[in-house]
Amino acid sequence: MASAELIEGLNHALNREVSTFLRYMLQGASIKGAQWAPAREMYLGEVTDEVGHALYLAEKIVMLGGTPMLDPDLTPPPSDVRKMLENDIAQEQIDVKGYIKLAELADKEGLADLKLRMEDQAADEAGHAEAMQRLLG
């Protein structure tokens, strides 16, 4: 069984992922205009990626002896596409830091597979932030 700190951290990450895929789904569905078509495609394309992250986290929490807890942030996203991207860049950067911390906790607990997966997810989130930054120009 994993430490309470690790389970709590994984649950926090799970909720951030659920919040993100809900936000991305709404943002992708609401974006209009040819100039923002790449942003729309990016958001809708990332929904399945974020769902995959959430599913992995929920399953890992159970495997480590915990219980997945849902309490997503349901704050409505901005309606302005530029503000969406700026907000999501900041959120992705927070996620990178969170996954790095989880990787460190997993390493301390001797969970090499989880450590590697958290590092991969940190890199994936950093890639999302870079893609959004490119869309902003």
Keywords:
137 residues; mainly alpha; Ferritin; 78% helix; 0% strand
What would you note in describing this structure?
The protein has 137 residues and is mostly helical. It has one domain (4-136): Ferritin, core subunit, four-helix bundle (Ferritin). It is built from four helices and no strands. It has helices at 4-30, 37-63, 81-108, 112-136. It is elongated, with a radius of gyration of 15 Å.
TL;DR of this structure?
This protein is mainly alpha-helical. The chain has helices at 4-30, 37-63, 81-108, 112-136. The radius of gyration is 15 Å and the shape is elongated.
Distance between the termini: 46 Å
In the CATH hierarchy, what is the class?
Mainly Alpha
Q: What fraction strand?
A: under 5%
Number-wise, the strands total 0
Average the pLDDT over all residues and give the rounded result. 97
Morphology: elongated
What count of structural domains? 1
CATH topology: Ferritin
Largest sheet descriptor: none
Q: Nearest-angstrom radius of gyration? A: 15 Å
Spans of 5+ residues with little confidence (pLDDT < 50)? none
Number of helices: 4
Assign a percent range to the helix content: over 70%
Class inferred from helices and paired strands: mainly alpha
Following the backbone from N to C, one meets helices and strands in this order, namely HHHH
